[in-house]
Amino acid sequence: MSQFSVSDRPVRHLVAQADRYRRVRLVAATVRRLAPIGAGAAAVTAVLARVFGWAPWLGVGILVAAAAALGAYAWWAGRARPTSDAMASRVDADAGLAGELRSAHWFEAETAHDAWAQFHLDHATRRASAVDWPALYPSTSSIKPWAATAVLSIVAVALAFRAPARAQAAPAAPVTVAQEIDDGLTPELREKLAALIAQLNAAVVDKDPAGKDAAMTDLKDLMAKMDPAMAQKLAEMLAKQDPKAMGKKSDTPAGDTPADALDKMTEGLADDAKWAKDNADAKTAQAGQAQQQGKPNAEGNKAGERGQGPAQQGQQSAESQQALAPLMRETAEQQSGKMMMGGGGPMGGDPKAGAGPTQDPSKGAAQALLVAQALKKELVEASADALGENVEKEDLRRKTEQGTSSLGFTRAAAPRVEPSRATPPPPVPDARRPLLFNYFIRRR
Amino acid sequence: MTVTSVAEHIDQFQERFVRITREVAKRIVGNEEIVGNTVTALLAGGHVLLEGIPGVGKTSLVHTLSDVLHLKFSRIQFTPDLMPADIVGTNIVQEHAHGGGTFFEFQPGPIFANVVLADEINRATPKTQSALLEAMQEQSVSVGKTTYQLEQPFLVLATQNPLEMEGTYPLPEAQLDRFFFKLKVTYPPEAALHQILERTTQTDTTPVARVMDGPEIIEMRHVVRSVPIAKPVQSYAIRLTLGSHPGSPYASPLVNKYVRYGASPRAAQALVLAGKIHAITRGQAFVSVDDIRAVAMPALRHRLLLNFEGEAEQVNADTIVTELLQSVPAEA
Question: Contact, B240 vs B324, CB < 8 A?
Answer without folding.
Answer: yes
